[in-house]
Amino acid sequence: MEKEPGNQTHFAGFILLGLSTSPKIQSLLLPLFLSMYLIGLLGNLLIILVICSNDTLFHTPMYFFLTHLSLADIGLSSSTVPKMLQILVSKTNTISHSGCLTQLHFFVVFCVTDNFLLASMAYDRYVAICRPLHYSTVMTYKRCLILVSGSWLLCNARMLLYIFSISGFSFCASREIPHFFCDVHPLIKLSCSDTSYVEMMLMFEGTATLLGPLMIILISYIFIVFKVLKVPSASGKQKAFSTCSSHLITVVLLYGTLIGTYIRPSSTYSSTKFSMASIFYTIVIPMLNPFIYSLRNSEIHRAMRRLLRIWVASLLPRWSSF
After folding, report:
1. How many Å separate Cα 19 from the centre of its chain?
2. Helix/strand/coil for 51
3. Is a pLDDT exceeding 60 seen at residue 209?
4. Do residues 215 and 242 lie in contact, with contact meaning Cβ atoms separated by under 8 Å?
5. In the predicted model, is pLDDT for residue 1 greater than 50?
6. What is the spatial distance between Cα 50 and Cα 58, in angstroms, rounded to a whole number?
7. Residue 49, exposed/middle/buried by CB under 10 A (0-12, 13-18, 19+)?
């Protein structure tokens, strides 16, 4: 670690303290988080496989967005959970400076992309319910591709600005991060540099990044509610709302956690509450999303059965040859 005047150092690495230092608690956390991670990983991969193998679903905007949402969920959990599991297994809790910034970059990119994709899905539901006659001309494949590509590119470009600023931080004494992955708030808390610029950027630009998509979602659902209330039959209302229920559940879970975690000054940062909230949106929500979007979705069920029949049919000749 390179020394500087004033007993400052350019950070050569970090120590991730994880969720607990107790061996008993760690032995309980390892199988729990490993199983949750694998369920989420396999569930989201299955959603992607089912949709991509069905040409009709893949070119349906809602399922096209869902494919990318599942991809973002895989990236979100995979950018943080494997390192946490490594700490629980090997007790090696160090991470290099470049590794920390890389983890931070991908974590925020996948997390913010989730927000933009949820906003695109809300707009899709608005057009489907409020402007059904124009749906095929508004939600074209080209427009969906632009929305998805824009989400990924904008989030990557935005995060590079944060990484450039944070990479110049200096740290005076402690290298210990009271968290299980590298995130913005813990790094700001450790730094003895002037972090006011990054904190201001986090409060204003970060707030706009979270609340901007949320406003699109809220406005879309306000129009949807007014439109559905005009439907005369109760069954028609139920059918319209049922197409939005999975999306709404995900929005409430994700935004409720993110807003309470990030839209606050770093002076109010609490490592325990921050870690608990992080577990929810890095492990729990990616694990739940495949179930939320597939359990009551008849089109996904039919596509799964079709894929299973194709898989079984491809295996039968092999079995008969033995």
Report:
1. 20
2. helix
3. yes
4. no
5. no
6. 9
7. middle
Q: What is the pTM assigned to this prediction?
A: 0.87
Nearest to 10 by CA among 266, 202, 193, 201: 193
Q: Nearest to residue 280, comparing CAs of 248, 258, 247?
A: 258
Q: Which residues contact 126 (CB under 8 A, 6 or more apart)?
A: 220, 221, 223, 224
How many angstroms from the chain centroid is the CA of residue 36? Answer: 15
173: pLDDT strictly greater than 80: no
How does DSSP classify residue 283?
I
Fill in the DSSP letter of residue 282.
I
Q: Which two tokens stand for residue 99?
A: 């590794």
Residues comprising the chain, all counted: 322
Pairing outcome for strands 2-4 and 8-10: antiparallel
- In this structure, the dihedral spanned by the alpha carbons of residues 193, 194, 199 and 201, taken in order and rounded to 10 degrees, is -110
**Structural contact between residues 192 and 254, judged by C-beta atoms closer than 8 angstroms:** no
- Sheet holding 176-177: strands in order across? 94-96, 13-16, 176-177
Instruction: Tell me which residue of 166, 190, 180 sits closest to 269, measured CA to CA.
Output: 190
